[in-house]
Amino acid sequence: MNLYLFQLINSFAGRYSWLDKLGIFFADWFAYLVILSLLVIAWRHRWPKQLLVIPFGSAVAARVVVEIIRFFYHHPRPFVVLADTHKLLDESSYSFPSGHASFFFALATGIYFYNKKLGACYLLLATVISIARVFAGIHWPLDILAGAGLGIATAYLTARFSKTASQ
């Protein structure tokens, strides 16, 4: 199933240059706009800085956990395993779990705890980034699912422990 889904999504790459450019944008550059948009929203609505601690704290923590997992578990990226992969981005580290998925799903989940509607929007943005990374040939779908699960769990634990610590 992992191979089938990867080939299905990645098969759209390499067909049209405009689609490849769009895929590269969402897989790589869009992440910066997502972070910037959150900071702008927080600033314009005068959110207290504490409201950003859970989303950003859990996102950073999730990314650290990804690096720890990758240190012990070396799962190759699709373009290393499959010769016919349409590789649109350069990545050199291992693929499992996805660092982008873990970071952005943790961020979105942390936002969701405070604002359901905005959090749902950011969960959608995290999904777009994640699927684009499969499209670009640098992640397996299972990498994305594991990263998303890790990010969501990290945000939940961060929020839970921060409430426990503040009481």
UniProtKB/TrEMBL annotation:
Transmembrane region(s)? 22-44, 51-73, 93-114, 121-138, 144-162
InterPro entries found in the cross-reference section: PAP2/HPO, PAP2/HPO_sf
Q: Which domain of life is it from?
A: Bacteria
| Pfam families (UniProt xref) | PAP2
Q: Does the keyword Membrane apply?
A: yes
Keyword tags: Membrane, Transmembrane, Transmembrane helix
Where the record annotates domain Phosphatidic acid phosphatase type 2/haloperoxidase, the positions are: 51-159
Q: Key word Transcription present in the record?
A: no
Q: Which Gene3D superfamilies match?
A: Phosphatidic acid phosphatase type 2/haloperoxidase (1.20.144.10)
Q: What is this protein called?
A: Phosphatidic acid phosphatase type 2/haloperoxidase domain-containing protein
State the species of origin: Candidatus Yanofskybacteria bacterium RIFCSPLOWO2_02_FULL_45_18
